[in-house]
């Protein structure tokens, strides 16, 4: 059950964010210069990316824990991984604040600002917040998120003041971060330059443990077709009473190279793993129509979820630069249905 923040709680967050804006951190940090706030275990560090230097889009993104840092790494290496902008952005789990334009805000966000008594004028001055979660459309923060973000921003303000007063410099280009850490023995906070816990996106291979499925795939009939497989978020806000925020379905799609025929297209539920869904779609097609000669994908993430299925069915799995049957126009047709 979703719990909304009170106006007073929103007021505390807006006040904290306004104080941060006065520091203009985008004049000192690039979006790839991470600031870590560590109060307890390393794995629970909150990582901040400051937006706006060299651009007109000002904001602060909070990535919670190592899983959040991994999402940041996906975003940072999207081009290398050959991931689409939509898949990368909608795979994120983070809390973000923006200083944008009035038309970017929802009616509810504008009403909150009005009730709080803030008056914004001009371009990139309107403060608003968004929660990103894989499987869901970006949405307003709920109460726990508002409370966490308020606490994060208060600590980030301390960190920025420490960075400025101590005249620190950090070699961010050497995969380091500015770490503001609480000493567990003294309770004192101190800033330092520290290496990032990891510097590349860590994806997981999907391992098939069903022995019966393995036998069926291994004995499936063979054919000479080449299939292409992909998974892409629609970028569409889908309302469902079962969920406390709008969903954003991911389409798991399989087509035939050459003919351009789309053979299967399945949409995920918000809590459903797109990788597992795509693997299920491909396995079902192999058991029904036989194993193809090859399966083409465009990135190692998709390859990792289909590797076992292809190996068990003696199908060659290839990572290619683009897909013939699945392109943006195909995905756009499905987006148009929402």
Radius of gyration: 23 Å
Largest sheet: 7 strands, mixed
Tally of domains: 2
Shape: elongated
- For the largest sheet, list the strands in their spatial order: 5-4-3-2-1-6-7
Question: Poorly predicted ranges (pLDDT <50, ≥5 residues)?
Answer: none
State the end-to-end CA separation. 25 Å
How many strands appear in the DSSP assignment? Answer: 12
Order of helices and strands: HEEEHHHEHEHEEHEEEHEHEH
Q: Residue share in helices?
A: 25-40%
Class based on secondary structure composition and strand pairing? alpha+beta
Write the layout of secondary structure elements.
Elements: H1 7-23, E1 35-38, E2 46-51, E3 58-64, H2 65-76, H3 78-81, H4 85-90, E4 94-100, H5 107-116, E5 126-132, H6 143-165, E6 176-182, E7 189-195, H7 211-218, E8 226-233, E9 250-256, E10 262-267, H8 274-289, E11 294-297, H9 300-312, E12 316-319, H10 328-335
Parallel strand pairs: 1-6, 8-11, 11-12
Antiparallel strand pairs: 1-2, 2-3, 3-4, 4-5, 6-7, 8-9, 9-10
Helix pairs in contact: 1-6, 8-9
Short note summarizing the structure:
Helices cover 35% and strands 22% of the residues. With 338 residues, the chain is α+β, with helices and mostly antiparallel strands. The chain folds into two domains: 7-195, no CATH class; 211-335, 2-Layer Sandwich (Nucleotidyltransferase, domain 5).
């Amino acid at each position: 059950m979703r719990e909304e923040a009170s106006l007073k709680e929103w007021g505390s967050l807006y006040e904290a964010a306004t104080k941060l804006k006065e520091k203009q951190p985008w004049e000192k940090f690039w979006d790839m210069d991470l600031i870590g706030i560590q109060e307890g275990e390393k794995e629970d560090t909150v990582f901040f990316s400051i937006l706006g230097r060299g651009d007109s889009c000002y904001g602060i993104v909070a990535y919670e824990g190592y899983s959040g840092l991994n999402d940041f790494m996906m975003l940072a290496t999207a081009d290398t991984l050959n991931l689409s902008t939509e898949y990368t952005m909608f795979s994120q789990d983070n809390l973000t604040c923006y200083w944008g334009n009035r038309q970017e805000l929802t009616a509810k966000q504008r009403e909150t600002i009005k009730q709080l008594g803030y008056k914004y004028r001009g371009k990139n001055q309107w403060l608003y917040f968004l929660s990103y979660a894989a499987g869901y459309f970006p949405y307003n923060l709920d109460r726990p998120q508002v409370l966490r973000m308020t606490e994060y921003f208060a600590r980030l303000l301390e960190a920025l003041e420490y960075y400025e007063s101590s005249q620190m410099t950090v070699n961010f280009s050497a995969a380091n971060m500015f770490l503001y850490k609480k000493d567990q023995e003294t309770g004192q906070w101190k800033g330092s330059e520290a290496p990032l816990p990891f510097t590349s996106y860590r994806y997981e291979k999907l391992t098939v443990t069903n022995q019966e499925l393995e036998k069926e795939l291994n004995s499936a009939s063979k054919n000479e077709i080449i299939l292409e497989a992909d998974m892409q978020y629609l970028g569409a806000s889908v309302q469902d009473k079962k969920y406390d925020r709008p969903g954003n379905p991911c389409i798991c799609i399989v087509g035939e190279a050459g003919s351009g025929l789309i053979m299967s297209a399945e949409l995920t539920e918000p809590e459903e793993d797109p990788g597992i869904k795509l693997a299920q779609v491909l396995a079902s097609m192999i058991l029904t129509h036989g194993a193809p000669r090859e399966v083409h994908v465009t990135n190692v993430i998709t390859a990792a979820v289909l590797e076992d299925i292809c190996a068990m069915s003696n199908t060659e799995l290839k990572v290619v630069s683009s897909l013939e049957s699945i392109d943006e126009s195909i995905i756009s047709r499905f987006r148009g249905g929402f």
